[in-house]
Each structure stands twice: as structure tokens, then as C-alpha cells.
Amino acid sequence: MAAEELAEAFVKEEATKVTDQDVEKVLKSSDEIKQRFRRSGPLGRFFEDGQLLVGMVKDYWSRSYRKIPAATIGAAVVSLIYVLNPLDLVPDVLPLIGQVDDAAVVAACLLLIEQDLYSYRQWKQTQAPGKDDAEDKT
């Protein structure tokens, strides 16, 4: 099985196990997660999508945006927690290589939820700019 297929299978399976505590962990760590996407390297190419994933989880949890399947939120939470965890399959302390598996999991998540993320992006663009939008652009 190719790395992409393994990452996709991982995201699908783990998304079914997401708990409220997992969502709360993402929300509490959202600034740290966003910082990980700002790095150069494998995660840097997912900067915008990483910001959208965090925003989508926040808006879902606050009930601002609910037009999304729970499985999509589960996949987003799984991938964001994976990015946050420095001791995953390949530890993040290993320069560059430690982020490759994070990027693979994020890429798999994005493939799985592409249409839902697109819909969220469209919805977000119709909303009045708020505090979170100002913070994301800095």
C-alpha cells in the first residue's frame, strides 16, 4: 500500500473515533497548530488549507457553520491533532523528515474533505470580517 493510501486509511479510521475532548484540544491549541503550518518545509505548502481547517473546526464547534458532515470534522480534527503531536509516526524533532508524515496526513485529509472545505471557504468569504480573520492574516 502506498504512503498516500496509508495516510488516507488512517484519517478515515481515526475520524470515526474523534471525541469532544479531541475537538477541544484542537481549539485550545489552534494558535500552535497554525504556527506549524507557517513553517517552511512540507507543511508550508498547506498554509491556507491549514488555516481553513482550524477555522472550520472553530466555526463548527461554535455552531456558526453546521452545513458539514461530522465525518468531515472528524477528519479535520484527526489531521490537526496529528500535526500538533511532535511524537507521531516520524518524530517532528527530525529536521524536515519529521514533517513529511504530517504533510501526508494533511494531504490525505484534504483529499477526503475537498468538497466540504470548498463549501466552507465559500461560506467564509460571505461572512463579515471578524477577529479570527484579522489574526489569520498576520
Report the principal-axis shape: globular
Which stretches are low in confidence, meaning pLDDT under 50 for 5 or more residues running?
none
Main beta-sheet annotation: none
Overall pLDDT: 83
**What number of structural domains do the residues give?**
1
- Strand tally: 0
Cα-atom Rg, whole angstroms?
Answer: 14 Å
Structural class: mainly alpha
Could you walk me through the main structural features you see in this protein, from its secondary elements to its overall organization?
The protein is built from eight helices and no strands. With 138 residues, it is mainly alpha-helical. The chain has one domain (3-127). The protein is globular and about 40 Å long. It starts with a helix and ends with a helix.
What keyword list fits this structure?
mainly alpha; 138 residues
